[in-house]
Design a protein that fits this description.
The chain is an alpha/beta fold. Helix 2 packs parallel to helix 3. The radius of gyration is 18 Å and the shape is globular.
Length: 226
């Protein structure tokens, strides 16, 4: 009996394959060329594995590099961008399919809806905010998709240290600390994400959040009824 259960678990790990990954990353390239190299590496790996891209819709910075790489490789690219940011994050022609939304909340809701998993590359406040919200949604039980952090050149070391501090001080549950899958290379990260299994206690079951209703309401701009 135990042998069959172990085999079943192993098969489930092997069967996890991503069709679409949402990538959070900066609208700048940063000062270190390693950040651009990492975006290109991730984009090429997604093409090799025939994984489509969901991202923030910009055509500059790391967003531009990974979206162009995935698009040129023949995979589908879906960009989701608030109307107010179009002039700031898009230069020249748009890449792939572009969905224009009303605000930042709708942007994140749309990206979550269309993705099987999430990866954060280096970025600024916006990237970190997207990463932290998607981690929070996992903790709350809104989704159970893998959340990966590509820690290029130790860029996120201090953020990870803050997470550990949160655990030490009793603000973050130890099991929730493992929501984030961490690696230094794209290949290692995707491999770990394919093997990811939820171990943290969720605040509420997914059904209780009525996620579809939430997404539908934010798309229409209507407030949820209490």
């Amino acid at each position: 009996m135990e042998g069959r259960e172990v085999t079943s678990t192993t098969n489930e790990k092997k069967e996890r394959r991503f069709r679409r990954i949402c990538v959070f990353c900066g609208s700048c390239t940063g000062y270190n060329s390693a950040f651009s190299d990492a975006a290109l590496e991730l984009g090429k790996l997604m093409v090799e594995r025939k994984i489509n891209l969901v991202y923030g819709g910009g055509s500059i910075g790391l967003m531009g590099l990974i979206s162009q790489t995935v698009f040129n490789g023949g995979c589908h690219v879906l960009g989701v961008i608030p109307k107010a940011l179009m002039s700031h994050e898009i230069a020249g022609e748009t890449i792939g399919e572009l969905k224009i939304v009303a605000d930042m909340h709708q942007r994140k809701s749309e990206m979550e809806k269309h993705a099987d998993a999430f990866i954060a590359l280096p970025g600024g406040y916006g990237t970190m905010e997207e990463l932290l919200e998607i981690i929070t949604w996992s903790q709350l039980g809104i989704h159970d998709k893998p959340v990966g952090l590509l820690n290029v050149n130790g860029y996120y070391n201090n953020l990870l240290a803050l997470f550990d501090k949160g655990v030490d001080e009793g603000f973050i549950d130890h099991s929730a600390r493992h929501i984030v899958v961490i690696a230094n290379t794209a290949e290692e990260l995707i491999k770990k994400m394919e093997e990811y299994e939820t171990v943290h206690d969720k605040v509420a079951p997914r059904q209780s959040w009525e996620v579809d209703q939430l997404l539908e309401s934010t798309q229409s701009g209507e407030a949820l009824r209490s």
